[in-house]
Amino acid sequence: MPPVEPSFLKIASVSKVFPSVDGRPEYEALRDVSLAIAEGEFVSIIGHSGCGKSTLMNILAGLDRPTLGGAYVDGKKITEPGPDRGIVFQNHSLLPWLSVQGNIEMAIATVFPDLPHNEVAHRARKHLEKVHLGKHLHKKPSELSGGMKQRVGIARAFAIQPKVLLLDEPFGALDALTRGLMQDDLINIWEVERKTVVLITHDVDEAIYLSDRIVLMSNGPAAHIGEIVPVTLPRPRTRDAMLDNPEYDSIRKHLLHYLASRGEHRTLAKAS
Predict the structure, then answer these.
(1) pLDDT at residue 142 greater than cutoff 90
(2) Most confident of 1-10, 24-33, 88-97, 117-126
(3) Looking at residue 17, what is its pLDDT?
(4) Upper half-sphere CA count for residue 114 (Cβ side, 13 Å)
(5) Which residues lie below 8 Å from residue 272, measured CB to CB, with a gap of 6+?
């Protein structure tokens, strides 16, 4: 008997065409993209600029709708944003007038309006402690560094207990050292909570370190999935163990050859 296709998060024959605007021709961003992701799986998506990664993420988030096909979470079609999907963008999107804890509490209370306030506060503190912000609960976003703001965003996304976590280059604006620390925080929380995660990244090393599978997109227009690369490095992972594993070098070279063969003009292998 063949293995059952995982389908907790499913992208089914999705195409997206943007209509013509101001005399410009219509643009086909995605063509016939299909992907099945298992519950608790961590999947990264990599591709050149303009390959439709963000368009696909917006469809999964419910911020845009496909022209053809559909996306589903646990059998339910995605038609709009919802609390079953937590989202972290490169821009942290924190409310500047609320404290760190207040930002998390507002998100929790919105999703769970019947939850007593003391439980809301407890959940907020618990998730902030997981990202090492327990001593900064009462600070405003303006008092935080860029990395700390992204930590709040990750804590907020996990705190609403989504079925799926969508990460759109959340560490792209951070320096290499902070980025590495953030990756460690993310993977440590994921190891415990095992949410289904989809990450968009331009960083090959980040994708290998975090992922179970890496989806390589073809160039746009009419971008599609060019290849899916499994990452079979043992978990739990540490950076040192990964770098010492010969399989890491093999996967990294394969990813870079794929991207280089499609003419990327900027560095995709950033320091992690």
Answers:
(1) yes
(2) 117-126
(3) 95
(4) 0
(5) 176, 179, 180, 183, 203, 205, 206, 209, 239
